[in-house]
Specification:
alpha+beta, about 25% helix, eight-stranded antiparallel sheet, Pnp Oxidase, Chain A, globular, two-stranded antiparallel sheet, about 170 residues, 5 helices, single chain
Amino acid sequence: MAKQDIAYTDGFDQFCSALTSGGSLLVSLDEDGRPNAMTIGWALLGFVWRAPICAVMVRPSRYTYQCMEATGDFTVNVPPSELADEVMFCGTKSGRDHDKFEECGFTAVPGQKVKSPSIDECVAVWECTIVQKNDVVPEAFIPEIVDGLYASGDFHRVYYGEIVASYADPERW
């Protein structure tokens, strides 16, 4: 069944559950227009600047960072549990070295309102246009966060994406 439009807040519990139980898939395009998927476990969904916003964090060392900078948009895709192995692969392999869509058997679906595609096999999608990005400020963290999550010094860039479309498979969502 085709995915249907949902309010960006629909399925908030499922959105958060996916992040904490294996991750969701962030998709953007590289400079050559090839889709790249990266597993994310951290994201925010809310309302900022009079707009629905999804904020995601990407480290500069990641290939996805280059893709996000080149594309200016992204999609967040919530996978079903049966894609756990593919989600793990996308979180441990780099798009510099792998065509994750091909290797995972993902079907790229053109975005409705953004350049980046979604993943057909996922149950829900948020399409986002980057409206703000900033680097986290190491000095602003409490020491426990820096020591526990940034020991290597590879601090994230936060991408704030205005949610311009959201849709889900009603039979699986």
